[in-house]
Structure formats: structure tokens, C-alpha cells
TrEMBL record:
Pathway assigned in UniProt: Cofactor biosynthesis; thiamine diphosphate biosynthesis; thiamine diphosphate from thiamine phosphate: step 1/1
UniProt keyword annotation of Magnesium present: yes
Catalytic activity: thiamine phosphate + ATP = thiamine diphosphate + ADP
Binding site for Mg(2+) 3: D30, D75, D211
Residues bound to substrate: H54, E264, W319
Protein name listed in UniProt: Thiamine-monophosphate kinase
Alphabetical GO biological process terms: thiamine biosynthetic process; thiamine diphosphate biosynthetic process
Domain PurM-like N-terminal: 28-138
Enzyme class: transferase
InterPro entries listed in its UniProt record: PurM-like_C_dom, PurM-like_C_sf, PurM-like_N, PurM-like_N_sf, ThiL-like
EC number(s) on file: 2.7.4.16
Family annotation (Pfam families): AIRS, AIRS_C
Keyword line: ATP-binding, Kinase, Magnesium, Metal-binding, Nucleotide-binding, Thiamine biosynthesis, Transferase
Length: 327
């Protein structure tokens, strides 16, 4: 039974994985020591998940752990980085081993899948929150960024869009549907698949990339701003799952709007030149992940939505922690 912070570390976090060859020293000292291969850069990202904001306090701890790590792995994928190391800062109201055990099992199961090693962190008492810092390796000069989109590039997304928002609506009991459909969409909200293999394959092909964490309508504007271009999205080209359309009772416009505004999708959005279409097809063939062209990069600034080539005036917003929306 864990009685204090060091018991938690010993029983739940230390020596839970095989050690990577590039980790010289992990949990148990003041700092971890890692060895960076020659001619590689280290991609670093930090994200926090807070109970009541990113998940309900009574959410399944295994699902929370998966979501916490997957969302951070998605940041590495967006940069074309291969996962290597992760640090975890965990704040707990109390020592609850019925919560810790499934949380850690799920966390390490996903970490092992992507060969990312927990090398340190912190545990403390307070309102439930999880902060991860992930580090990945990318060949020097090959990282994907948001600033390389060029006028004339195609805009792509992986997978389907909108399922996470539908799952969240069900979790919050804002909408209802049949039990099987609800279970599928809730699972997709919590357990998105980080597109690490896609990000790695896009090196040297994509001109810009990011992951969809705040909604397409918000996230693509980061590419537009950093690249000094405009983005046009054709809503009829948005990839929609059969489950999302069923959730929307076949209302295609509602499904399209969810697809555009849904946060925590953790699909990749990227741009690539028309000249790279064949190279893109070959590079992504082995990933077994579908990708869809949803628009074009244009001159100008900002985002425009089109439906069958005609401008739309939909007022859609992505997620922002500090913006209060009118009901």
C-alpha cells in the first residue's frame, strides 16, 4: 500500500518499462540524463490536463491516462518527431490506488506501444491534474512546422473529423443516442490514435503541419498566420464518419460544422504542393491511415469556408480556454 509520495513513485512509476538505450539515468535522481544522437534535433512539448476542464473528475482513469499521453504524442507527430522520452507531473487530491493502478497500466501500455520512456516528473497533492512533457527525435533540418505553407499547396487532414466533439457531447449528456453508437463515439473522444507514423512519413513532403487539438477552424489559422497565406476549406470534402452522420441524424450540415469546430481530434492537418501528390501517396501507403484533401492555400490571410465553391458565412469557433462564449 502506498503511504506517501515516494511509495507512489516506487510502486507505480519506477522500473515499469524496459530502459531505452539512449537513457543514461531515469527516475530516482534530481534530473534524468539522456543521450541525443548525432545530427538529430529534440522536439519538446508540454500539455496539461485538468479535472473539470479536460475530463470529468469521475472519468475512467485508464481513459484519462491514454488521453493525456496520446495528446502529447500527437504534438510530436505534428513535428515529424519520433517519440523518445516523457516526464509526468501528477497532482492528486489523495492517494487513491484504485485510481492509480488503472491510470498507470493504461499510461505504460501506450508508452510501450510508441517506445517512449518515462524518465522523471513530480507527484504532489492538490486538485487532480496531469502535466506531461514529451520529447522526440527528428533528423536535423527535417522537422515539420507551421510556417512553410505556400500559395497553391493542397490542405489535407488524416482520418475523420467531428467524432471527438460528438463523444464529448454524450459524456456531458448534452445529447443522446443509442448505446452502441454512444460507446463508439465516447471511445473515439478518449482514445484518438496519435499519427506518429504519418508525421514521420511526411518529412520532406509536407510544407507545413500541425495537429488538430482546438478544431480545424482555429488550428488552420495558425498555419495561415505563420506562413503568411490564406486558407480555403471546401466543406463538402470534409471526411465524416458514418457514426458522426448517424449522431447528427443524417444532417450533413450539422456534421460538417462539428467536423470544423471539434477539438481534441488529434488528427494531423498538413499542406503539400501539388507536385508532391504522388510522393505523398507512396509515403503514406504503408501507414494504413486515410488522408483527405480539404482545401487550398491562397494568397491573402485568414480562413474562408466554401460549399461547392460558394462562400459560406458560418460563424464557427475552435476551443479557447480563456474565451467565454455566449449561449
Amino acid at each position: 500500500m502506498a503511504k506517501n509520495e515516494f511509495d507512489i513513485i516506487k510502486h507505480y512509476f519506477a522500473q515499469q518499462q524496459l530502459q531505452r538505450d539512449d537513457v543514461a539515468l531515469a527516475i530516482g535522481d534530481d534530473c534524468a540524463l539522456v543521450n541525443v544522437p548525432v545530427d538529430f534535433s529534440v522536439a519538446v512539448s508540454t500539455d496539461s490536463l485538468v479535472a473539470g476542464t479536460h475530463f470529468l473528475a469521475d472519468a475512467d482513469p485508464a481513459s484519462v491516462a491514454y488521453k493525456a499521453l496520446a495528446s502529447n504524442l500527437s504534438d510530436l507527430a505534428a513535428m515529424g518527431a519520433t517519440p523518445a522520452w516523457v516526464s509526468l507531473a501528477l497532482t492528486l487530491p489523495t492517494i487513491d490506488e484504485t485510481w492509480l493502478a488503472p491510470f498507470c497500466h493504461s499510461f505504460f501500455e501506450l508508452a510501450n506501444q510508441y517506445n517512449i520512456q518515462l524518465i522523471g516528473g513530480d507527484t504532489t497533492k492538490g486538485p487532480l491534474s496531469i502535466t506531461l512533457t514529451v520529447q522526440g527525435l527528428v533528423p536535423r533540418g527535417q522537422a515539420l512546422t507551421r510556417s512553410g505553407a505556400q500559395v497553391g499547396d493542397d490542405i489535407y487532414v488524416t482520418g475523420d473529423l467531428g467524432d471527438s466533439a460528438a463523444g464529448l457531447a454524450l459524456i456531458l449528456q448534452q445529447q443522446h443516442c443509442d448505446q452502441h453508437l454512444a460507446a463508439t463515439l465516447i471511445e473515439r473522444h478518449f482514445k484518438a490514435s496519435p499519427r506518429v507514423n504519418v508525421g514521420e512519413a511526411l518529412r520532406g513532403i509536407a510544407s507545413a503541419a500541425l495537429d488538430i487539438s482546438d478544431g480545424v477552424v482555429a488550428d488552420v489559422q495558425h498555419i495561415a498566420a505563420r506562413s503568411n497565406v490564406a486558407i480555403e476549406i471546401e466543406v463538402e470534402q470534409l471526411p465524416l464518419s458514418a457514426e458522426l452522420l448517424a449522431f447528427c441524424d443524417g444532417d450533413r450540415q450539422q456534421a460538417q460544422q462539428l467536423a470544423l469546430s471539434s477539438g481534441e481530434e488529434y488528427e494531423l492537418c498538413f499542406t503539400a504542393s501539388a507536385a508532391n501528390r504522388d510522393a505523398l501517396k507512396v509515403a503514406l501507403a504503408h501507414t494504413n491511415i486515410k488522408y483527405t484533401c480539404i482545401g487550398k492555400v491562397k494568397t491573402g490571410s485568414g480562413l474562408s469556408l466554401l460549399q461547392s465553391g460558394k462562400p459560406l458565412t458560418w460563424q464557427l469557433f475552435g476551443w479557447d480556454h480563456f474565451v467565454v462564449k455566449d449561449n
